[in-house]
Design a protein that fits this description.
The chain is an alpha+beta fold. The chain is built from 12 helices and 37 strands. The longest helix is centred in the C-terminal third of the chain and has 23 residues, at 581-603. Bound molecules: alpha-D-galactopyranose.
Amino acid sequence: MTIRAIPQGWVLETRTTGYALGVNDAGRLSHRYWGVRLPYLEDYPLAANPAGWASFNGPTHLTPEEYPAYGGISYIDPCLKVTFADGVRDLVLQIDPAQQASFSQTELTIHLCDTYYPLLVTLHYRVHAEYDLIERWVTLHNLSEQNITVERVLSAQWHLPGHEKYHLTHVNGRWLDEFHLLREPLVQGIKVLESRRLTTSHHHNPWFTLDRNTADEQRGEVWFGVLAWSGNWRISAEVTEFASTRVNIGLNDWDFAWNLAAKQSFTTPSSYAGYTDEGFGGASRRLHDFVRTTVVPNPHLTHKVLYNSWEATLFDVNEHAQLELARLAAEMGVELFVMDDGWFHGRTLDNAGLGDWWPDKQKFPQGLTPLIQGVNALGMDFGLWLEPEMVNPDSDLYRAHPDWVLHFPTRARTEGRNQLILNIARPDVQDYLISLIDRLLSEHTITFIKWDMNRNVSEPGWPEAEGEPREIWVRYVQGLYHIWHTLRTRHPGVIWQSCSGGGGRADFGILREADQIWVSDNTEATARLAIQEGFSHIFPPSTMEAWVTDASEHLISLEFRFHVSMCGVLGIGGHLLRWSERERAEAKRLIAQYKEIRSTIQSGDLYRLRSPQHHPFSAIQYVSKDRSEAVLFAFRTYIPDPVELPPLYLCGLDPDARYRIDGVDDVRSGQAWMHAGLRVGLNNFQSSLLRVWRV
Ligand code: GLA
């Protein structure tokens, strides 16, 4: 059993964790425990019954409520805030006496209702036992005859054991510079991370990890979580004056409201969270396994080695030039050839064409079919770049439908990269995009789409919409999922990449539709090491598309650049016509090597041995699930001499089995490689790929 009833509550157990909640004497649904699984049911603590604190804080302020609403004499950052039709803005939730709760082996549903108004708040819990994850989401049901304005509705409040001091680890960055790790102490007050940009954003990611400043990569207790949402989101980590630490996670309530009409429901996105005592590495391995098996649309996919033409040709694409690149790519062993931006009607630069998704007559007088056939004849699949949510004012689409973009009637339409954002909350825009892309995919043998989104929001208006205008943030993302999902369902053989100027749309929500993610527009290998490390805390290598390009080619060897990209889903993005024969031969060798090791990289366990964000000598290791093979990458960027590189302590091997390592004479036990270590000698800007085999 993974969910069990205990006196006045429930325990949710995963492979190694326990999570308990229940009702306290005051009838409040309270958090009781989250941590290592306890042997006996009676081990789980009872719900607390705190008294108030002087006249300034009521008992609910001190109660670790599972889903606190705004109301009463409590100042906890709430999960739910509404205004009823009569203007009342106070909520008093209790377990619904009519429906209470129900549970199965893996799902617990608890119904809360307001004590006066017919508003039902259903809390959903789902246990993903094998991954030590608990999923939470919430549904609101307006059972009344009047509208309710919802001003905040989060997915969960996650409670940490009280009276402890925590550090919060999160990622931050900007375009070209995503996924930098930051670990900072939480102090009394609220730390907010969010996106207000309509997408997940390059700046933060809806992922958190908390520890007591005692965890490292391999060991120590950590609590971690994500939100599966690709629009505005908010995480707030609160430490109260009574040393209670909680993390709120959900839709951002900034500029948000939802008109919950009579008899209507609203469902939040899911938050997934977990606990492990295996450090940051243990947390990310759980997320990786979960994404690979449960979240992505094609769980057992082997991701192909691709070539992307963007950095080689920019907008200057045509059949001849693309086929020249394709021939060289095929000779090197590339499996999928992707034509990027520039192929569609009127697209010569970034100032025209977006919206008109048919081949440009000048560049492709016979359409795309001859190119696709040429690529297929070379033994490769064909993929294409699209940016469906965008429109250039200089396009047939915009000239026909200027009202289809997000805008306010009295304001200028602010352009970003000369483009405006189509309002895909509108059903007519959704239908238009679906039928256009459907036709493109039906008429061509296209097996890969790179779905891009190259600006953030401005003037988020929808003047024709009736009702609550601030619903746009959520309706836009629902529209995105609807379009993408419809196309996926109609074309199940197509593989999809999520890109938003690099890593601007990387999250567990989009991974339900997308097979892989373009992590950053920054393809410079040493910068990429750090970006990829941050990404790897949240997402598995099977989703991490990484290209070898010509960035810093005079400083960084082709082999180093390949090794960095081989840490995920290998792609090539350099200008192959400028690569020498020797370079292409080397690339061919490395691509062949990648194909030999990719199952371990894409579906094995990832261990970060030394952080490239903290050390110029870094290392990462992948171990096959049966521990029979491992792959070790080590990178040295710049360290002035004299230097003695420290040993690398391998991880995840079978301690009693014996392993040999490429280029090393000794055969030793897994225990020895893990604890006595391995010395890898590297010069500046040199890297090494070592394969490890059980003998
Ligand atoms: C974005 C993407 C790039 C490329 C360009 C094309 O910046 O991240 O990879 O596709 O758009 O315009």
